[in-house]
Amino acid sequence: xxxxxxxxxxxxxxxxxxxxxxxxxxxxxxxxxxxxxxxxxxxxxxxxxxxxxxxxxxxxxxxxxxxxxxxxxxxxxxxxxxxxxxxxxxxxxxxxxxxxxxxxxxxxxxxxxxxxxxxxxxxxxxxxxxxxxxxxxxxxxxxxxxxxxxxxxxxxxxxxxxxxxxxxxxxxxxxxxxxxxxxxxxxxxxxxxxxxxxxxxxxxxxxxxxxxxxxxxxxxxxxxxxxxxxxxxxxxxxxxxxxxxxxxxxxxxxxxxxxxxxxxxxxxxxxxxxxxxxxxxx
Length: 282
Hints:
CATH architecture of the largest domain: 3-Layer(aba) Sandwich
Distance between the termini: 83 Å
Largest sheet: 5 strands, mixed
Radius of gyration: 25 Å
CATH class of the largest domain: Alpha Beta
Strand content: 15-25%
Helix content: 25-40%
Shape: globular
Number of helices: 10
CATH topology of the largest domain: D-Maltodextrin-Binding Protein, domain 2
C-alpha cells in the first residue's frame, strides 16, 4: 500500500511539474484591441477643442462638431451607447503622439492623410475631403500666393498648411502657432497678412467674422480626412472601415453636415464638396 501511494505521489508530482513548466513556457493570450475597448467601457477619441465647426467645446463645456458627431456614433455602434466616449483634447501637432502613447484609440481631429503621417499611424478610409484656403482682411485681400512675398503668413504647427508652404514656398515667412485660437487672434491683431488652413475651416471663420474674406478658396491638391489609429492596429482600423461603409448606406455624413456644418456655412458651401460617404471619394 505504501509503495502504491508513493508511486501515485511521484506521478502527481511529475504531472504538477510538467504543468508548471508548460505554464512558464506560454504567455496568456493578449486581448484584441476591440476587446480592450469593450472591457474599458469607453472609446477614447482625440478631437480639437478650438476648431469649430469640426471640434470645439461649447459654452456649456460640451464637445461639439462634425468630428464629435462621428465619435459618438462610433461609440454607440461599438459599445451600445453614444455617451461611452472619452474625448481627449489635442492640438494639431500632438495628434500622432497621443496614438503612439496609447492615450487614445482613434484620432478624429480633422486629420488630413499625408504620406509622412501614414508612416507613423494607420489611417482608415476617408469621411471628408479638403483643400487649403487662405483668409485675409477684406481691405487687403490675398487672392494669389504671389502677394505673400515679403509678408507674413499665419499657420498652425503640424498642419498641412505648414507642410505645404515650407515645401513649395520657402520664401514665404511663416508665423506658427500651436492653437487655432492663437492663430486667428494673430490674424485679427494684424501680425500676419493672411492665414492658411483647411478651406472648410476658413470658409466658416470668414463667414462668422465680419471684415475677412477667403480670397484663395482652393490651394494644392484635394486631400482626404480620415480616422487614424495606432500603427499596426489593423483590427480597429478594419472595424472603422466596415462602419464607414455601413454609415454610407444611411447617408450618415450628410446628416452630420446638416447638424454641425450647415449652421456655420449656411448655403455658401455645397455638402458634396466636403462630405464623403461609404469611405470612398468619388
